[in-house]
Design goal:
GO molecular function, one term: phosphorelay sensor kinase activity
Largest sheet: 5 strands, antiparallel
Transmembrane segments: 47-74, 94-125, 137-157, 169-189
Strand content: 5-15%
Distance between the termini: 95 Å
Domain Histidine kinase: 358-580
EC number: 2.7.13.3
Shape: rod-shaped
Radius of gyration: 49 Å
Catalytic activity: ATP + protein L-histidine = ADP + protein N-phospho-L-histidine
């Protein structure tokens, strides 16, 4: 029997839920509130329809009090239909409270006025109005209730005697009180259900908020009027590496969060809290927060995370502010890598442009000379150059010089490309450093004499043999001497020097040339760069001399040092370690991430500057 009754009740409840207005049906809490109101008022209407035949059977022609009770119960039906059709639950609740106040106020006047046992039941009307949550509605219901409670007595409209019992045995006040108590029970059920729904909804919302905050990596904190942390979200434990959320709440409470802010970011942190509380505007800043349990001054370096703190003013009527903490360490790292990649891309573009401009200039001049003088020597022109032996020798010398220049340019570019791509192998062997450097000096001596320069050597007899790659050392010395001769004016001096050191040896070239401004020291070691560039180039060359020297020094495990000031000459020295004889060092192929992570401007640890594939 009971299962069948339960099934019928569920069926009836489903029919009632179908009466809920569509605007409220999509939300669980609103659907439950509307359904409870409609069910309760339909039940009151059904009770009126059930009592009407019984009262007519037992009491005959009904009295005014009985008619008032039946009318009050029956009026619940149109109220239920009004809420069902319009979805205006608050107005329906206010109307129901007014109906109760008027009906029971009149009933109290009919059953003794101020001495009627029905009069205290009028307090239920403001209670039902309070459920609606409308301030004006509550004031209206309270005013009507007071008017119905004392108005009839003041106007002399109350009946001094109780109404006739229904059927001769059921006093009207008893029936009214019974119905009022039942009505109060319905109100209590509605209030309790609404309270439980609100609590459940709050728990669900808090759970969803915490879940969303965890998924988004955000922690919500509440700060008191003085900026001290009063509550900390669960995500704070994960962001700051504090373990359990309860431990994080204790650790960050009070001045705990402030103590974790990096000293350099504390003024901005305090200003953001102060401005949000004073101006009511949202403040956003990035700061560094100490992570984990390491304290400043303890053994080990404390780790910091980069966090974004968004400070919101508190809602109206609350003190303090709220803040949202989000770990942006990964974003900051990505942004840094992106900026580095963009800088490298811009650097590649500039290098490509420099390469095209330099190579086109350096190739065009000697090629024009080769083509022009070879045409003269071919005898196709009426100049008669082919019949003059002296002119033939001069033209041949110019062609040879232009060809040598082109060969040197191609060799420099090939060397630079081999260094950058990691195909230049360093093979160490024992050789006499002084003999190697002296041969380089003698090789460049005719060029120095032609330019009117004094080329000397400062090579101690004690240099002896060293263990290194003689090809790399010879190439370094020739490049440095060529650069020095090119940028030293006539009458100047160029010195090739070397010395031994405990871990290796140092050699280089110093001159009394035009010098290099300190701001250009880093730039001149990049491929295809000259201090005088573009249309204002004063010297020939592709700008690869120092770039090749720096790359070879790095491949040999050494470093290049540049000391120069504009107008005071230049000194370039290369420090190389002593390698085991027959030991080979292959230049590793650097990956993109290694190139982006490599410190810029450190000649000793770099594998050379980026020369683009077009080289």
């Amino acid at each position: 029997m009971m299962p069948a009754l339960q099934d019928r009740l569920r069926l009836a409840a489903s029919h009632v839920d179908a009466l809920v207005h569509p605007d409220a049906a999509h939300e669980t809490a609103a659907r439950a509130s509307h359904g409870a109101f409609i069910r309760g008022h339909l039940a009151c209407g059904a009770l009126a329809l059930a009592l009407l035949p019984l009262m007519l059977a037992f009491n005959g022609i009904t009295t005014l009090a009985v008619a008032l009770i039946l009318g009050w119960l029956t009026a619940h039906l149109p109220l239920a239909m009004y809420v069902s059709r319009t979805g205006e639950l608050a107005r329906g609740q206010i109307a129901s409270a007014l109906l109760f106040a008027v009906s029971f106020g009149v009933l109290a006047a009919l059953t003794g006025g101020l001495s009627s046992p029905v009069l205290p039941l009028l307090v239920l009307a403001p209670v039902e109005a309070a459920i609606a949550g409308r301030r004006r509605g509550i004031v209206l219901v309270v005013a009507v209730t007071l008017a119905m409670a004392v108005g009839p007595a003041l106007a002399g409209l109350t009946m001094p005697a109780a109404a006739d019992p229904i059927g001769g045995f059921l006093p009207v006040p008893l029936l009214a009180v019974t119905l009022a108590v039942l009505y109060a029970g319905l109100l209590a059920l509605r209030v309790g259900a609404a309270t439980r729904r609100r609590e459940t909804d709050l728990v669900r919302r808090e759970t969803r908020t915490n879940l969303a905050a965890r998924l988004a990596g955000e922690a919500v904190l509440r700060h008191g009027p003085n900026g001290r942390v009063e509550e900390a979200g669960e995500a704070a434990a994960r962001i700051l590496g504090l373990g359990h959320p309860a431990a994080a709440a204790r650790e960050l409470a009070g001045d705990g969060l402030f103590a974790r802010v990096h000293v350099g970011d504390r003024p901005a942190y305090l200003k953001a809290l102060s401005d949000a509380a004073a101006d009511g505007a949202v403040q956003c800043l990035r700061l560094r927060l100490r992570r984990g349990g390491t304290q400043p001054g303890e053994a080990g370096r404390p780790g910091y995370v980069t966090a974004e703190l968004t400070v919101h003013p508190a809602p109206d009527g609350e003190d303090g502010v709220f803040s949202v903490l989000r770990d942006v360490t990964a974003e900051t790292t990505l942004a840094t890598e992106r900026d580095t990649a963009l800088a490298e891309a811009e650097k590649a573009r500039e290098a490509h442009s420099r390469f095209l401009a330099t190579v086109s200039h350096e190739l065009r001049t000697p090629l024009n000379a080769i083509l022009g003088f070879s045409e003269l020597l071919s005898g196709d022109t009426p100049s008669g150059a082919a019949t003059d032996p002296q002119r033939v020798r001069d033209y041949a010398g110019t062609i040879h010089q232009s060809g040598s220049h082109l060969l040197q340019l191609v060799n420099d570019m090939l060397n630079m490309a081999r260094i950058e791509t990691g195909h230049f192998d360093i093979v160490a062997e024992r050789f006499d450093l002084r003999t190697c450097l002296e041969s380089c000096r003698r090789m460049m001596e005719p060029e120095a004499a032609r330019l009117g320069l004094r080329l000397t050597a400062d090579l101690p007899l004690s240099l002896g043999e060293v263990s290194a790659d003689p090809r790399a050392c010879r190439q370094i010395a020739l490049n440095l001497l060529s650069n020095a001769l090119k940028f030293t004016p006539e009458g100047g001096r160029v010195v090739l020097f070397a010395r031994s050191e405990p871990q290796g040896f140092v050699f280089g070239v110093r001159d009394s040339g035009i010098g290099i401004a300190p701001a250009d020291h880093q730039r001149v070691t990049e491929p295809f760069v000259q201090v005088s560039a573009g249309l204002a180039r004063l010297h020939d060359g592709a700008g690869l001399g120092l770039a090749v020297v720096k790359g070879l020094a790095a491949l040999s495990g050494g470093r290049m040092t540049l000391d120069s000031r504009e107008g005071e000459g230049t000194c370039v020295s290369v420090a190389l370690p002593s390698l085991a004889a027959d030991a080979g060092i292959s230049a590793p192929r650097p990956t993109l991430s290694q190139r982006l992570a490599a410190p810029r401007g450190e000649a000793g640890r770099s594998t050379g500057h980026d020369i683009k594939r077009s080289a």
